[in-house]
Amino acid sequence: MWLANDGNYREMRYFTPWAKHRQTEDHYLPRMVQQVTGQVKVPFGDAVVSTADTCIGIELCEELFTPASPHILMGLDGVEIFTNSSGSHHELRKLNTRIDLIREATQKLGGVYLYANQQGCDGDRLYYDGCALIALNGKVIAQGSQFSLNDVEVVTATIDIEDVRSHRAVKSRSMQAAGAERYQRIEVPFALSDDRFGRAPTRFQDARFHKPEEEIA
Fold it and tell me: Which residues contact 132 (CB under 8 A, 6 or more apart)?
């Protein structure tokens, strides 16, 4: 786990990053929770979630910007959907950087990237510009607005997970994946897809950017 700890961020003032890569520990739930859920303990740490039809991995805001981003090893180990819940503040042309990084990640690895970002002011001197988006295999398929005044903005898309699998059918990638270190999979008894056919996948779209003059204004 990699935390932002420079510039405007001092996350390690409050948090200690999990340092046991690809490892988990059992966390015993309070007895009151056990009585309600019937579950005694939960895994805690660095793992991925395996559903009946795909595999989901999570990386944090800062990790998208680091050289050894978690999505690299997760993608080689079979993760097909990456999520990132971000708190990335606005800087001039920073949206271009975010989208370039997400495009590159899913172009090389193949996969779906679900990016959410905080929007609005934090009560101090930072402004978060939102612009959630969904990318598939290096292309944007859904994008929220930047500088929205809405409290909540939801971005959705329909994808065919087989597009990810066909995109990954490359020999060099397969050889690297064969030697990749394994993540522990947390099995969950449900699927993200259903048996209804006939819904067309969302079409690719050009990423939308404001002009520098518009961002400054």
Answer: 115, 116, 117, 143, 144, 153, 155
